[in-house]
Amino acid sequence: MKALVYTGPGTVEVLDRLKPTIQAATDAVVRILHASICGTDLHILKNDVPDAQPGLVLGHEGVGVVDSVGSAVQRMQVGDRVLISCMTSCGACRYCERGITAHCLTGGWRLGKNIDGTQAEYVRVPHATLSLHPLPSSIDPRAAVALSDAFPTGLECGVLSSNVQPGGSVVIVGAGPVGMAALLTARLYTPSLIVMVDLDETRLEMARKFGAHATVNSSGPDTQQRLMDLTQGEGFDSVIEAVGIPVTFAMCQQLVAIGGRIANVGVHGTSVDLHLETLWDRNISIHMSLVNATSTPRLLRLVESGMLDIGSMVTHHFPFTEATTAYDTFKAASSHQALKVAIDFV
């Protein structure tokens, strides 16, 4: 088969690889229809993920058709169209029993990090019963790649962790795919104010189309004041950090209201300052997590019912023969006005 392989820092190549086979009774092999690129794939290319070594097939997001199943796999049959979860989970270890499937002792984030991932014609998925989800025929399979990771992350690590409530106020710092997913899922909880913050005017315009009540370009010197003015100086009940750099985390600490919650979603590669000298008496909480993807069935039902529109999240797509161009586009997402970038195998 053909696969997109991480060949060293900063480089990916389309190479010939052996088609995967069933290695355990709980495995399934899936023929990929559509895959997508995640920001963590770029972290691998930057050599920021020590577990990911050259020679690895990248990717942990995708939609495909079941090609073969192990004897212990339930719910899935050969020929079924499925959504691949970014997290694999056994369902039985001490972390899975607590709902922290991201830390499954034999699963978690393995695809495209510890084992070959989804950016190939075929992928082996461990713990397939809980790590694959039947994809209804009414859902566009290319758009559905955003349900592998971006939407569960935006909902679980952003919206739920920041305790978005009816009538509350929400600020999302970072209008990338996960920030946009947080915006779309936050709307389901009917807050009275959702504000998106970013440096990119194109993405801010898109956020307004997605339902943000207001947007603020953070390049100006009075960003914090403009944001506080939107809440009459009180700050925001729910603050979602979706970038992962010190300056945005510092901004979030300044924006949280008394009794509010900060949800860190961004992947931080350097240390940040926690200003307890100004936060200790404000009755706030700060939550950070890796996505467990336990919300995926709920998200699929919301899309199928028309309550959640995911159709605008995938803005660019390329045939697999142009997979390296897809990566170049995603690396320069701002200049290409890109959110999710899909790789098509059909």
From TrEMBL:
Its cofactor is Zn(2+). It comes from the Eukaryota. CDD domains: FDH_like_ADH2 (cd08286). SMART domains: PKS_ER. Keywords: Metal-binding, Oxidoreductase, Zinc. Gene3D superfamilies: Medium-chain alcohol dehydrogenases, catalytic domain, NAD(P)-binding Rossmann-like Domain. This is Enoyl reductase (ER) domain-containing protein. It comes from Penicillium atrosanguineum.
